[in-house]
Amino acid sequence: MSAPTHFVHVYATVRVKLGVTAHDQLAAMKEADRLLFANGFGVRLIPSATGELEADYAEEVSGYLVDEAGDHEYDRSRTYAADGAPIS
C-alpha cells in the first residue's frame, strides 16, 4: 500500500523591503502596508508591488497546516507549531 498524499501549507515568513517617502517612521510603515497590500499581497518572491526593492524568504516558519488528499470534509486536517507540535 502506498503512502497517502498530504498537502502541507507552510506558513513561512518573508521579508519585503520597500522604498517609501514619509515624514516619520509610523507614516513610512503605513505607506509600506498600503503599497504592499493595496491590490492583494504584492509579493510572489518576484517583486511586483510599487516601490518594492527586494523580497526573500526570512528563514522562519511560524507553523503548518496539513490536509490529506481525499479528506474533502477536512476531518483529518491538523495545524502544527513551527516545532511540529500539534495545535489544538
Search tags:
four-stranded antiparallel sheet; 1 helix; 15% helix; 41% strand
User: How is the largest sheet built, in terms of strand order?
Assistant: 1-2-3-4
Q: Report the major sheet.
A: 4 strands, antiparallel
Derived from helix and strand composition plus strand pairing, the structural class reads mainly beta
- Count of distinct strands: 4
Number of helices: 1
Residues in β-strands, percent: 35-45%
Estimate the mean pLDDT confidence: 88
The assembly state of the depicted protein chains is single chain
Q: Note poorly predicted spans.
A: none
Q: Determine Rg (CA atoms, Å).
A: 18 Å
Shape: elongated
Structure, explained:
The chain starts with 5 loop residues before the first strand and ends with a strand. It is 15% helix and 41% strand. A hairpin with a 4-residue loop joins strand 3 and strand 4. It has one helix and four strands. It is mainly beta. It has one helix spanning 25-37, and strands at 6-18, 52-68, 78-81, 86-87. It has a four-stranded antiparallel β-sheet with strand order 1-2-3-4. The relative contact order is 0.25. The model has no long low-confidence stretch (mean pLDDT 88).
